[in-house]
Amino acid sequence: MMKWKSNLSILLYCVILSFVCLAIFGYTTSPFYDEPSSGDSALFQLVAKEWLNGHLPYVGLWDMKGPIVFFVDYLGYMLTDSRTGIFVIEVALLTITLFILWKLLRKGFSAMQSTLLLLFPTFSFAANAVGGNCVAEFVLPLLAWSFYLLYKWLDKVEDHSRIVDNHPAKYAFFYGLVVAFCLLSRLTNAVGICAAVAVIAFWLMIRGNFKNLLSNILYFAFGFAVLFIPFTAYFAYHHAFDEMWYGTFLFNLDYAAASTSELHSLPAILKLAIHFVDTWLFLGVAVLQFFVNPRRRFAAVMWFFVALLTMVWFLRGNGYPHYGLISLPCICIMFLEAKNILQSVSSIHFLRFSSIVAFIVYTLITVGACVHSYRMFNSMYIANTALEQYRAFLKDVPSDYRQSFIAYNCNPDLYLYDNIVPYYRFFAFQDWESHGSKSLQEKLREEFSGNAKWILVKGHA
User: Fold this and answer.
1) Of 156, 167, 173, 273, which sits 20 to 30 A from 433 (CA to CA)?
2) pLDDT of residue 266
3) 275 with 373: CB under 8 angstroms?
4) Is residue 350 pLDDT above 80, yes or no?
5) What is the end-to-end Cα distance of the chain in Å, rounded?
């Protein structure tokens, strides 16, 4: 009974953290803001709204994300017929994520310590959410649970009082869910789990446990199929599989190839260091653990590859802050492994002192990033000057322009807030989306050879 009450209290605590965090920092769907600049969030909402009106994503309106992204917003608009429904779903998903992360922290910390440390993934979320309704948000509960299972298994492997030769195949089911979810939203969000799965597979092969490896492969495939098949079958049934697959996967091969590193200036390097500080520290803890704590050397190898491959993508993938959301579970594992290191070298005072300094610096960076994120929003996004300019430009256009209107290279807020259905399916940031993709450039030329009466162009076209 006491445990049930404790879990209920923690769940309520997670609800409060999630609500406050998203109410302030998830401004694109928060009901407490009017018409903030919404960017990607507006794209997702527009595709979802048209889906509700019977027009399939990619065929009706197009964007370079997988169908699960639009499906979440679709459900949100089904709930309340407004962006508030998406906000409710976001709060629920973040609540579940934080509750799982609290359970993960309890693997090495007291209830009170875990409750306080939970503030760090919350702060990190706030600093990197970039207005909320982000692609990485939606997979966080599955990611958190998968990393919880990974840590739980590694604890047994590293318990040298018993021999562990296998990996529970049922855990692989959740890894498969994560990869399918990411493939149907943004595949690169699965980079950490893919790294962990590769390490597990290699470990099983070294031990010659091919039977357990086969079981894991089958369970992984089953978890993958549970999510992947219904979505692909739905679009295939509506004769739109090719369009869905292009927007979800094929186009993103071009996008990934055209992505660039942000390591071109000192400000850019500092930005990457701050936004991805969680992953940098996680990588550092893994390296330190390998050399200092031989009893958890396999865990160190696992976390090293998870952190390294994640960081490689962050550095290669245009350096967008919201990519860092997938590292929230790693924050908790970083704390747990740092504690394991300190317990293994209790006689080294320098290491303990350095850990305290690192913790203070990390706290200042994380809180400072939250403050900076909020100030950025207030100075750049809440006024939404671009929307004001669009409206001022269109005020003398005949009132029926909405029936045959498309904006070129413009922010999609105009459609969302003025209830405009874009005349063409490629409706925002056209040059930016197509700059590295010849296939999309061809599709754009074909689409814009149509008969739209009104085209609002930003820049040169």
Assistant:
1) 273
2) 65
3) no
4) no
5) 66
How far apart, in whole angstroms, are the C-alpha atoms of residue 206 and residue 172?
Answer: 18
Closest CA to 45 of 3, 75, 88, 1: 75
Q: What average pLDDT does the segment 182-190 reach?
A: 94
CA dist., res. 412 & res. 390, Å (int): 11
Residue 273 banded pLDDT, cuts 50, 70, 90: confident
Confidence check: pLDDT of 260 > 70: no
The values of phi and psi at residue 260, to 5°, are -125, 160
* Contact call for residues 322 and 131 (beta carbons, < 8 A): no
List pLDDT tens digits, range 359-398. 888 889 888 888 888 888 877 678 788 888 898 888 888 8
Q: What is the structure's pLDDT at 359?
A: 87
Taking a C-beta distance cutoff of 8 angstroms, is the pair 259, 317 a contact?
Answer: yes
46/63 Cα distance (integer angstroms): 10
Contact 328, 271 (CB under 8 A): no
Contact 241, 229 (CB under 8 A): no
Which of 426, 413, 421 lies closest to 131 in space, CA to CA? 413
Asked whether residue 113 carries a pLDDT value surpassing 90, the answer given is yes
Instruction: Retrieve residue 22's tokens.
Output: 């998203």
Q: What's the average model confidence in pLDDT over 231-253?
A: 93
Q: 3-state secondary structure string, the chain?
A: CHHHHHHHHHHHHHHHHHHHHHHHHCCCCCCCCCCCCCCHHHHHHHHHHHHHCCCCECCCECCCCCHHHHHHHHHHHHHHCCHHHHHHHHHHHHHHHHHHHHHHHCCCCCHHHHHHHCHHHHHHHHHHCCCCCCHHHHHHHHHHHHHHHHHHHHHHHCCCCCCCCCCCHHHHHHHHHHHHHHHCCCHHHHHHHHHHHHHHHHHHHHCCCHHHHHHHHHHHHHHHHHHHHHHHHHHHHCCCHHHHHHHHHHHHHHHHHHCCCCCCCHHHHHHHHHHCHHHHHHHHHHHHHHHHCHHHHHHHHHHHHHHHHHHHHHHHCCCCHHHHHHHHHHHHHHHHHHHHHHHHCCCCHHHHHHHHHHHHHHHHHHHHHHHHHHHHHHHHHCCCHHHHHHHHHHCCCCHHHHHHEEEECCCCHHHHHCCCCCCCCCCCCHHHHHCCCHHHHHHHHHHCCCCCCEEEECCCC
Residue 118 is predicted with a pLDDT of 96
User: Model's pTM, two decimal places?
Assistant: 0.93
